[in-house]
Amino acid sequence: MERSRAGRGLGLVVLSLVVTSWCACRAAKPPQEAYTDPNVALQVRVGQAFALTLESNRTTGYQWELAEPLNGAILKLANSEYKAPGTTRVGTGGHEVWTFQSVGKGKTKIALKYVRPWEKSAAPARSETFEVIIR
User: Fold this and answer.
1) What is the pLDDT of residue 87?
2) How far is CA 80 from CA 4, 111, 116, 120, 123, in A?
3) pTM: predicted TM-score of the whole model, two decimal places
């Protein structure tokens, strides 16, 4: 009978961890939209998070950076991270995901450049500009 109680206690602990983890995930709202096309203006609501996804290959030394400061009155950078490819093949590129939070109404642009950070005078290998309309 002692074993049965111990087993039930462990089950409650596991259930508690699952529920706690589920609640924590639900509290941290992920971006509702992930955008990849700079030719289409993004339309989001005030308070909405959204993400820009860009092809990237860290094995080349390149990474995306903001080319211009953000208009902090209406938009802020929440996070940027590199997502490695789902393969072990050497030299395969992944994606960078840039997550933003809209904080005020207006229209702005997000300009990004694909550079090697140590090559300060070199021109970017690529650049993208996304138009954002916040309502």
Assistant:
1) 83
2) 47, 14, 16, 21, 22
3) 0.72
Cα 58 from Cα 85, distance rounded (Å): 11
Tally of structural domains, the chain: 2
Shared domain for 86 and 115, answered yes or no, is yes
Q: Give the C-alpha separation, 101 to 78, whole Å.
A: 6
What is residue 103's predicted lDDT score, i.e. its pLDDT? 97
**Position 105: which residue type?**
K
In a shared domain, residues 55 and 101: yes
Q: Rounded distance, CA 123 to CA 106, Å?
A: 30
From residue 61, alpha-carbon distances to 24, 58, 64, 90, 92 in Å are: 35, 5, 10, 14, 13
Whether 54 and 93 map to the same domain: the answer is yes
Cα end-to-end distance, the chain, whole Å = 62
Same domain, 107 and 46: yes
**Residue partners of 29: CB distance under 8 A and separation at least 6:** 49
